[in-house]
Amino acid sequence: MSEAALPELNQRIGDRLRQLRTAQGWSLDRLSAACGVSKAMLGQIERGESSPTVVTLWKIAAGLACSFSSLLGDLPEPAGPGEVRRLGEGVAVTTLLPFDGPLGCECLLVELPVGCEYRSVPHLAGVVEDILPLSAGVEVWLAGAWQPVAPGTALRFAADQPHGYRNMSAMPARFHNLIHYPSA
Predict the structure, then answer these.
(1) Residue 73: per-residue pLDDT
(2) Which residue in 166, 176, 163 sits closest to 137, CA to CA?
(3) Is 28 exposed, middle or buried (0-12, 13-18, 19+ CB in 10 A)?
(4) Smallest Cα–Cα separation from 128: which of 178, 175, 180?
(5) How far separated are the first and last CA of the chain, in Å rounded?
(6) Burial of 142: CB neighbours in 10 Å, binned 0-12, 13-18, 19+
(7) Which of 35, 47, 127, 130 has the fewest CB atoms found within 10 Å of its own CB?
(8) Pairwise CA distance, residues 5 & 142, whole Å
């Protein structure tokens, strides 16, 4: 995504956040208390003045009890082959299968640049993630330790605990992230 497209992306995320928040009848104060992101930051995101990191978007999704991809739901599809959405920290996230309410899952393609490390906030109770590496270098933070996950294998874990992802290889690392949400 070009630098010129970033303000449009920020505004689309902000508009979607406002839609989801107001649909629940929540104020910025209420959302801040639910997700642990400051009211000021939430306001900046809603106005399109801030480029939220992946971690911040996960916190907001957890606070709203919605899927990660629902925050990106109204975003246009990538314009061409190989073009992805770049969010904060250089992490690229592409929705492969958008959130499906009846099935309670979504599938993302995540690309971590060389040396990237980020920690995710715990999701709601009952959320489970499957990590399916497509390349070497994918490591997952669970129970206080980094665990390498090799291509051709998979890791399933309860995502309602602190967890994270990193790439310590010399090449970008890619993985499919299948997220299962408990039924309401």
Answers:
(1) 60
(2) 166
(3) middle
(4) 180
(5) 35
(6) middle
(7) 47
(8) 35
pLDDT range class, residue 113, cuts 50, 70, 90: very high
Q: Which one, of 59, 42, 93, lies nearest residue 162 by Cα?
A: 59
Q: What is the pLDDT of residues 140-150, one digit of tens each?
A: 999 999 999 99
What's the 3-state SS for the chain?
A: CCHHHHHHHHHHHHHHHHHHHHHCCCCHHHHHHHHCCCHHHHHHHHCCCCCCCHHHHHHHHHHHCCCCHHHHCCCCCCCCCCCCEECHHHCEEEEEEEEECCCCEEEEEEEECCCCEEEECCCCCCCEEEEEECCCCEEEEECCEEEECCCCCCEEEECCCCEEEEECCCCCEEEEEEEECCCC
CATH architecture of 3-72: Orthogonal Bundle (1.10)
Domain boundaries, given as residue ranges, for the chain? 3-72, 85-180
> Has this prediction a pTM greater than 0.70?
no
Q: What is the pLDDT of residues 12-36, one digit of tens each?
A: 889 889 988 887 789 999 999 988 9
